[in-house]
Amino acid sequence: MATGFANQASVALELARARADRHRAALLDERERIAADLHDHVIQRLFASGLSLQALAATLGPGPAADRVLGTVDDLDTTITQIRTAIFQLQQVPSATPRGLRARLLDVVADVTPALGFDPAVRFAGLIDTLPDAASHDLLAVLREALTNTARHAQATAVEVAIIATARRLTVEVRDDGVGIGDTGRRSGLAHLQHRAERHGGTLDLGPPETGSGDPAGTRLTWSIPLGEADLDQLA
Ligand SMILES: Nc1ncnc2c1ncn2[C@@H]1O[C@H](COP(=O)(O)OP(=O)(O)O)[C@@H](O)[C@H]1O
Ligand SMILES: [Mg+2]
């Protein structure tokens, strides 16, 4: 019954989050448009004005008049720099409301999706947004590395991500249907994931996914750490 309730609650959270995401998307579209206008029109005009003033200063020859004009050119340059900074800030995701962990995990998925060439299937279970900071931080890193590996090495056509938090354990599983991991000698990203697991007293496990069809193809990465008191002991 508790599981049923948790699932209901997580559906409700998901819906609320989808609504917030739509609102955010509309806001970002508007910012995008303003940033593009500033960049394409305002900066270009200021730049052109600066150039013609510079040409004017050259015809004036050295003297106080030319100095005034060149001073104005400097002001225009400063203004352009300020506008560029404003454009950069407009393009940042609004940070007034801190992003929940689920949203940040989905950001990671969205980052890697172009490299994959298809959308990963993502499943959440349990109370993801209330994980301790240290676990959240590592979870984000693990997801990014696992999906990046799939994009770089697997030649997969599908990826499934499952992120499951219970009161006592956090597990992330990433399965792809690619070429399989084989016996790789050199390991860098995976070594870091192993280290990130061990730090929490957890494990990194790699192998072929159990497909049920009898012919294992692809890669399954399972990263799992204990939560709760065990984790607190580690951090103390
Ligand atoms: N999903 C995957 N499918 C196939 N091969 C993989 C996958 N993930 C990792 N590998 C193999 O394991 C090796 C080690 O991975 P990693 O430690 O992340 O290093 P890197 O990604 O820098 O090569 C990769 O070079 C690749 O050969
Ligand atoms: Mg890697």
Biggest sheet strand line-up: 1-2-3-5-4
Shape: elongated
Helix segment count?
6
Along the chain, the helix and strand elements come as HHHEHEEHEEH
Describe the structure.
The protein is of the alpha+beta class and 236 residues long. It folds into 2 domains: 90 residues; 135 residues, 2-Layer Sandwich (Heat Shock Protein 90). It has 6 helices and 5 strands. The protein has a 5-stranded mixed sheet with strand order 1-2-3-5-4. Helix 4 links the parallel strand 1 and strand 2. Helix 1 packs antiparallel against helix 2, helix 3 runs parallel beside helix 4 and helix 4 packs antiparallel against helix 5. The longest helix is centred in the N-terminal third of the chain and has 59 residues. It starts with a helix and ends with a helix.
Write a short abstract of this structure.
The chain is of the alpha+beta class and 236 residues long.
